[in-house]
Specification:
Layout lengths: L2 H6 L28 H20 L1 H26 L4 H32 L1 H11 L1 H23 L17 H39 L4 H43 L4 H11 L5 H17 L3 H27 L7 H35 L5 H7 L2
Helix pairs in contact: 3-4, 3-7, 3-8, 3-12, 4-7, 7-8, 8-9, 8-11, 8-12, 9-10, 10-11, 12-13
Length: about 375
């Protein structure tokens, strides 16, 4: 073949790089199921209505949800009392009195150190301001520069007459405190009554509801779902509570060892905050750091308490909890974090505390229904 004939040949196609997918030679097939726009719009409207109902009905829904989750936790104890001859009504009353009595005892025990920190707050802020004087000076300079820029902008404006401001006086601090106390007392009373009825009559109500189903297979299916939900949520809550108690005790002992004041208070706060994964430990790390700043002088002594707490939470989150909880009810960390943000946005701190149990309940319910199994797999493995 001559050089002229060789030059007239078309160039050979370049070899694909290793691991590069081959281009599609045929058009991609259309999706198997076309979505109905009306159905999508109906689902969207339903989700919006549900969000409005959850937000504006939080004063009613929050005590109901908290009582339901506590009933999952205490139901095995009521059943144990029933096996030894204690009627369910009396066993439920014993559990409610024991629970709220323990809460009141803890509040009474820790009220003195908590009140001490509240009374010390002006002096604490003064000490913190003194120790962080350089940072505060920089913030003040930035604030003064911003104020001067704002004043200059007003002076170079269109020269219009100044706008008269109307200040609406809201309720006083005492009125707000009284209103909050009344709301808390009412919610606690509602919670106690609901919890008692869930423990005393919840099983009978569920059996009556399942008994109304005409299909025998549906009765068996939902009875198994209810039993799975009760067992898994109870074991999960008991396990997490035990882990939080151990973490709080270890934190209190370590803070006592480092010489931090009121170590029992920090241990209890850590045990409560650990019900909110990720966010709770992060907040308590900041709190312990501030207390260390106010208590110690050297940088080493200041960093020891928060760093030791970070070490404890690292061991708890990466070793202790996965080893004990295992894969019985493992949840996707992304789903957990999104659930905390969502329920915290809807219901505040109580919603953040209930976010993980609600997510666990939803996962069990989704796994029990075939069309929702993909969503359940997304929530956890």
């Amino acid at each position: 073949m001559t050089d002229r004939q060789f030059a007239s040949l078309p160039p050979a196609p370049a070899a694909p790089l290793p691991g590069t997918p081959e281009p599609a030679t045929e058009p991609l097939p259309p999706p198997g199921h076309r979505r109905d726009p009306l159905a999508i719009a109906a689902v969207g409207l339903f989700v919006i209505a549900l969000l409005f109902a959850l937000y504006f009905g939080r004063d009613v829904l929050l005590p109901i949800m908290l009582a339901l989750i506590l009933s999952f936790l205490l139901r095995p104890l009521v059943r144990a009392l029933y096996r030894v001859g204690v009627p369910e009504g009396i066993g439920a009353a014993i559990m409610v009195i024991t629970l709220f009595g323990g809460v009141l005892l803890a509040i009474y025990t820790l009220s003195a150190p908590a009140a001490e920190w509240v009374n010390r707050m002006p002096r604490v802020l003064h000490e913190l301001e003194f120790k962080l004087g350089d940072l505060r000076a920089g913030i003040e300079r930035a604030r003064e520069a911003s104020r001067q820029i704002e004043q200059l902008t007003k002076e170079t404006g269109n020269g219009a007459a100044p706008v008269r401001e109307v200040v609406v006086r809201g309720p006083t601090l005492m009125e707000q405190a009284v209103s909050q106390v009344e709301s808390v007392i009412a919610n606690v009373v509602i919670l106690q009554v609901l919890l008692y009825f869930f423990l005393a009559r919840g099983r009978h109500t569920l059996e009556a509801l399942i008994g109304t189903m005409r299909n025998v297979d549906d009765r068996v299916h939902y009875a198994m779902v209810a039993a799975t939900l009760q067992q898994n949520i109870a074991v999960y809550l008991l396990t997490i509570t035990a882990i939080n108690v151990v973490l709080g005790t270890a934190t209190g002992l370590m803070m006592w060892m480092w010489g931090l004041p009121n170590p029992a208070l920090w241990g209890v706060l850590v045990a409560l905050a650990n019900y909110i994964p990720f966010i709770g430990p992060a907040v308590m790390t900041g709190v312990l750091f501030l207390v260390s700043v106010l208590t110690f002088e050297g940088i080493g002594a200041i960093l020891l308490p928060p760093l030791s707490f970070v070490a404890l939470t690292t061991v708890e989150g990466n070793v202790l909890t996965p080893m004990i909880v295992g894969r019985r009810l493992s949840l996707n960390p992304i789903a957990v974090f999104v659930s905390i943000l969502f329920w915290g946005w809807l219901w505040g701190i109580p919603g953040a505390l209930l976010a993980v149990p609600i997510l666990a309940i939803l996962k069990i319910l989704f796994d029990a229904h075939e069309p929702m199994k993909p969503v359940g797999a997304l929530l956890g493995g």
